[in-house]
Specification:
heterodimer, A: 356 residues, alpha+beta, Rossmann fold, OB fold (Dihydrolipoamide Acetyltransferase, E2P), 2 domains, six-stranded mixed β-sheet, six-stranded antiparallel β-sheet, 24% helix, B: 291 residues, mainly alpha, MetI-like fold, two-stranded antiparallel sheet, 3% strand, globular, ATP hydrolysis activity (chain A), Lactose ABC transporter ATP-binding protein (chain A), ATP binding (chain A), ABC_transporter-like_CS (chain A), ABC_transpr_MalK-like (chain A)
Amino acid sequence: MSAGVRLEGLRKSYGAVEVIRGVDLDIEPQEFVVFVGPSGCGKSTLLRMIAGLEEITGGDLYIGERRMNDTDASRRGIAMVFQSYALYPHMTVRENMGFALKYAGVKKPEIKAQVDEAARILGLDQLMDRRPKDLSGGQRQRVAIGRAIVRHPEVFLFDEPLSNLDAELRVQMRIEIARLHSELKSTIVYVTHDQVEAMTLADKIVVLRDGRIEQVGTPLDLYDDPDNLFVAGFIGSPKMNFLPAELSGGALTLVEHGGQTVPLPPLGRAPQEGERVTLGIRPEHFRKEGSAALEVDVEIVENLGGETYVYARQAGSDVLTIATGGARGLRQGDRMTARFDPSDALLFNREGLRIR
Amino acid sequence: MAQTRLGRAENRAGWAFVMPALVLVGIFMIYPILWSLWMSLQTGRGMTTSFGGLANIQRLFADPIFLTALSNTMIFLAIQVPIMIMLALVFAVMLNDPKTKFRGLFRTAIFLPAVTSLVAYSILFKSIFSNDGLATTIVTFFGGPEISWLGEPFWAKVVIILAITWRWTGYNMIFYLAALQNIDRSIYEAARIDGVPARAQFFRITIPMLKPVILFTTIISTIGTLQLFDEVQNITQGGPSNATLTLSQYIFNLTFRFMPSYGYAATVSYVIVVLVAVLSVIQFWIARDRK
């Protein structure tokens, strides 16, 4: 029931402006793929091209084995859930969910059975006769998902479906979408700008920037092994710390930290002497022990209870974010030693590409 | 309820603010309405009137000219308003489609008649439909018969209907365009992906969502057509032989053209009021929320 999707050199331009610049991607059947990137990166446009809402300027789109470039949106075997829910405001929940089936030639009793089934899966049974305006944001989004489910699509497309919900509901719906995916076993392509959604939901994350794919991989691949500074900075919250450094005498001299040196992370190919690089350390990689140490002054302490984030710097350096599990006693102005293990740190060259 | 000093001061200030408006509304609206109601109970001509009770209402039913004016007005209403509303809707949907070329130009062109000088356009229509006018030239060019547009009762009505439709379609269209632009585009995208045909999108999505605006424009147009005066006065003067005479024009004639019969004219005015009220109630009832 679920199909794969293949993009080959997909391009889209509006006049002279190219917004999608050659995207190649393979999406397996039943895979949950998340497009993530900053606003304006083209992730929604790419999704709308798969949906058939935007024309494809160049390249090929396959859903299943069929080339779909010129196929009408309604014949691509897809269903889409929109950020604004896009429910028909004058119809009840039942009518909203069954409306499209009428035009697909489905018989009335069959429509009822399918709508009831979707309502059961989504827990909408009690709301079937309400109008969208009488529903909460989360319920509306469930109806929108229900409307997609009843069509039994081969591929589900989600366009920032949780962006209009408050934080608590977002977490709840995220879990529900994950549950739905394991229940329906369908292919899902999901667009979000929220990297937490991407990390928690995806089998495979596609990081986009300026209409190009920066990296494709499982959430932990991207977290542990980013290809470049952009992906390293985009995935993970709070953001990875980037420290400008220079290679001298087999160690890294931290330019902004008073020329302090730290050992080089283990690398297959070491950079040349004197080369300018960027050292990346995730906030949670600072520990009590470690062969590398930075002396910093605490500026702000955020106590979240279980976790404490310390924002600290050395005179003249950028602010470092340090996650400390237990350190509750810290105050502004305190001096602390932030230690880390060089093998946890990542190194990037001047162009922002990873040195492995 | 005992009033505090602050409450009394606020009350005084409040009354001071609304008083000028109240006085004006009172003098120019409420007083004339009440006075015309009183007048509608008076019979007689010119300044010599006497209280006649419901005599004017009896006169209505025996007055063939009134009945002609009433039936003309209802014919205009029943034919022109639905045609205009449908046309305005179709134009609005077409001009709301991002794929339509020259949208701004068409929008302006269709709206322009609503702000054109009434007399100028009436003269233009008169000349187009005169015996040697453009309309006759075109019809005869295609082998049609020579029609005396303004001389035959049927065609004179057609010309009036064409004129008011031409003038007011763009005006109504603007309301629909505004409403359409407020509809979330993704609703139509969802319908497109779900395979809902264009016709069904129009009748099952667009029309229901525009229902409040359609109701509003229908009532406004109904009121406008019931008060139809300017076009008829300028193009046909009610002729030929009262075939395009409207209620408003008849009121005008009763007051200013014939020996003034203020009381009876006021009664005919109240016929329009009652018609507007009844038709509006019916329209609200038809458009009510059935759930």
